Amino acid sequence: MLWYKAWLETRTRFLISLVGIIVLCSLLIYHGDRDALPNTGPSYYYFVLRSGHSALCTMWILAVTLLTMGGLLREKAIGAASFTLALPAGRTRLMSVRICMGFLQAFALAVLPWAAMFAVAVSTGKARSIGQAGFHIALLAGGGMLFFGIALLVSSLVEGEYTAPVVSFGVTLAMSFLLGDPPLRAYSPFAFINGVEYWDRHSGLLVGAVPWAHIAASIGVTCVLIAISVKAIQRREF
Amino acid sequence: MIDAPVIQTRALTKSYGRVEAVRSLDLVVAPGCITGFLGRNGAGKSTTIKMLLGMIRPTSGDGAVLGRRITDPRENVELRRHVAYVSEDKRLYAYMTVEQMLRFTASFYPDWRHDIAENLLREYELPRERKVRALSKGMRTKLALLLAFARRPDLLILDEPGDGLDPFGIEQLLQSLVAICAEGTAVFFSSHQIAEVERISDRVAILERGRLILDLSLDDMRESYRQIDVVFPGLPAERDFQIAGIRRIRAAGHQWSVFASGNADAIVDRARDFHASSIQVTPVGLREIFLEMAREN
Question: Of the candidates A68, A230, B272, B280, which lies 20 to 30 Å from B195 by C-alpha distance?
Fold first, then answer.
């Protein structure tokens, strides 16, 4: 039933985010080629990448950060932590369910909008490629987990119903400035999930192999952040 | 029924920097009875309860609840299967409905009593489909109590349970506590409402500045504690009057007010030895004892 609680706690935020992202991304794909100049270079994929995927990346980061806000520190701020902590469930178990629910929702927020964009492309006879869609999803879901880890860590360290999201968005914003220009941009998760390094400006396609090593490194760092978060909650006094 | 104490702490201490919230607490709570836990604001009652439930780590010392060590995280989870706790603020999950709260809580307790939950839902007039965030403070308190009672715990720990209830609700609560105790659940509750504590408790423990200053049964209290008002024509020296049982002497002219925790007969005899012209012995209530002990410490 902890899954049930985690779902009830986040479902409104999740569904609003999901519907909002799907609608916006689908509209971008549907209307995107109006802005393309036929036969002059920018293809449909240009708009998928620049409009659809870039918009998805930004909204995904915002949504995942918001969805990850919660847990015992937020409950402490609103006074419900005593009830949760008096249940016969250890803190690690409480955290695990929350983390798994967050992962699933973050993954859904990456895959479902892409599925919607793909469906729009199919239904309107636009160019599409499952391989390109998979590449984009791998970059977003794999590389983007770092943002999930950051939000989780902040929500496990910073108390206050509104303080934690503000700090989390602040950290994300600071990262985007600090890692925005070369040479640090090579380490930017924003550039990575947008596929900047793999994007061919002539074709508008992602080229090369999916960077599994980079994705694994990103997931590894996320795991470290998660471990720190769990430890912080285990040690915390309520 | 278990004969071992339901709560036992040994030198339990919690410090925040240089401030000792709970100081070397040796508390024993007997099974099958209602124990009132009294103390001023900031005396350390909530901190003690939170240490018992593993929400706060003791700085030193240890304790056991239902025979399980409170400082062992695994044992603490296990003990919480048998303990129901209602916190001071009684906040629950605002995003759940009453029905969802019931379903969620019931899932953790195999012995959940659906019949009790249904009866209390009706008795407390709680609307099943209403979100917790839309409940009044009194209704929220009733829901928190319902969730605790329906588990049929071995130990019920309540932190200011009457807070937010109207007099009718408090009456319902007190009757419920007596009823649940009669069925074998030990009740340990903190309260500022001394009259209520006195009415239903079998024992009382008083905490003052983190230290346990009194732990006795209400029967013993009624038996032993006395206020003895004495008028002396010629005043004796206070040190000559000191005998066992005297906690405090307050002098106003020729009239002494003696607060005694026992030995009243001997004190009266001693007053007669000093030719007291008037001696009046009156039993004292928990309220007077609490105020006296708090002042003393």
Answer: B280
Map residue B208 onto helix, strand or coil.
Answer: strand
Whether omega for the bond prior to residue A183 falls within 30 degrees of 0, making it cis, is: yes
Shortest distance between the Cα of B92 and any Cα of chain A, in A, equals 5
Instruction: Please check whether residue B21 is in contact with residue B44, taking contact to mean a CB–CB distance below 8 angstroms.
Output: yes
Cβ atoms < 10 Å from Cβ of B179: 11
Nearest to B80 among A5, A79, A86 (CB): A86
Q: Which residues pair with B12 in a beta bridge?
A: B25
Q: Residue B75 and residue B67: Cα distance in Å, rounded?
A: 9
Cα angle vertex B208, ends B194, B76, to 5°?
90
Instruction: Estimate the share of chain A in helix, then strand, then coil, as percent rounded to the nearest 5.
Output: 80, 0, 20
What is the pLDDT tens value at each position of chain A, 238 positions in all? 999 999 999 999 999 999 999 999 888 888 766 665 555 445 556 666 667 888 899 999 999 999 999 899 999 998 999 999 999 999 999 999 999 999 999 999 999 999 998 888 888 877 678 888 899 999 999 999 999 999 999 999 998 888 999 999 999 999 988 988 888 888 899 989 988 888 887 777 788 899 999 999 999 999 999 999 999 999 999 9
Identify the domain containing residue A199 by its residue range: 2-234
Q: B132 to chain A nearest CA, in Å?
A: 11
Nearest to B154 by CA among B119, B191, B180: B180
Q: Are A225 and A153 in contact (CB under 8 A)?
A: yes
Number of folded domains that form chain A: 1
Does B107 sit within 8 Å of A82, measured CB to CB?
Answer: no
In chain A, whose CA is at the least distance from the CA of B83? A86
ipTM of the modeled complex: 0.87
